[in-house]
Amino acid sequence: MAPAALTPASALSSPSLHTATLTPLVFRRPTAAPSPRGSRGAVSARRTLRPLNPRFATKAFSGGDGDGFSRATLLWRAAKLPIYSVALVPLTVGTAAAYHQTGLFFAKRYLILLSASVLVITWLNLSNDVYDFDTGADRNKKESVVNILGSRGVTQFAAITSLVLGFMGLFWACADAGNFHFILLVTFAILCGYVYQCPPFRLSYLGLGEPLCFAAFGPFATTSFYFSSSCKNLSNGINSLPLTSTVLASSFLVGLTTTLILFCSHFHQIDEDLAVGKMSPLVRIGTRGGSEVVKYGVISLYILLMAFSLCKVLPLTCLLAALTIPMGKLVIDFVEKNHNDKIKIFMAKYYCVRLHAFFGSALAVGLFLARTRIVA
Asked: What is the distance, to the nearest Å, from the Cα of residue 363 to the centroid of all Cα atoms in its chain?
């Protein structure tokens, strides 16, 4: 399997010549870059530690390229904490779909899987920083973990350690559930992440990142977590869950909202991607075309929700997710207005994260209510 080819020894090696010149950014003094609002604004940006709030990111520096930013903002953007909703939502929706099918919920298994998912996403984020650093895409990205730590090797070792620990939790859940479909599908999901960014594949540089993201977090991850709620106890008549249209429809919607996050994360770095030959969809179609894709993507999300619910593929209670329509409109309006503003458009992915989290939560609640019959 591809991830096994990476070892701690190889992680500590440094094939990149510019690694030796790195100095951890958290220990650097920000340079006194000229501020468009005058020197007083520049002094304030250098001396003030701002709260860890992603909204401040658009004011602190220009899409990752500016120099006048606070250390707090730098660490916030490196941590990418809101992005970890992509670990929570597929697990919660998949578990809710299983509860809708069986009426069973395994709290311990859910918590261990959540921890394992967070570790896998940590590997995905850290290794992405490592390999984008190797290609030069992140050379000037101040919030890159490699630039912050000043070491490519340490970052890659941390990534591999996170993946190994995550797999340990996943294998425990597989043994506890007694369902091989779970570990097979979740492995496919992780392999999608590997070929997305890791050499020699790096399929994201060919513009295939979004399809891989959809498959990984939608059909593979969400469906695998559905199977993780299987039960080995034959006395209750449940051993292996059937693959239903309900879980497939749910996984499709989760995959779509997750892909919107990845797509919008490229708006502010088109120039950097183009410079290193990373042909993301936005590099190919431009920001104006990208804003149209976002609009029709969000509209399609709610059309599919309505269609699945009215056709009874999803229970009618899942229409609770339609309550997030104002948030979807916010994403459309924000991207349409700011698609060509490199500073402001950085926040687009965070608005998509909110849509992803709230839509997924409402979808899971709808599945839960349908089983408990709290709502007709």
From this structure: 18
